[in-house]
Amino acid sequence: MGRRTRAVGIAGRYGARYGSTLRKKVRDILSKRYAPHTCPFCAAKGTVYRISTGIWACRKCGVKWAGGAYIPRTGLNKYFPKIVIREE
Ligand SMILES: [Zn+2]
Question: Domains of the chain, with CATH numbers?
């Protein structure tokens, strides 16, 4: 990352707007969202992407599942394991 956005990282997309405290919070969330996630079904790394808020899919095995808004799995998955929608 360049020196220009060293403090807020990915939240540098917001320029000078919204204040540095909010941009730092957004950075923490966005960096989790775009980090390479491991598929919880086929264990492939970096194949997971977010379709929409809370909806995640894996490029390799094609599974779609409901997860967190910004992370594929939340702590709740121990109570609601593997609720899977497969698209044929
Ligand atoms: Zn997968």
Answer: 1-35 (no CATH), 36-88 (2.20.25.30)
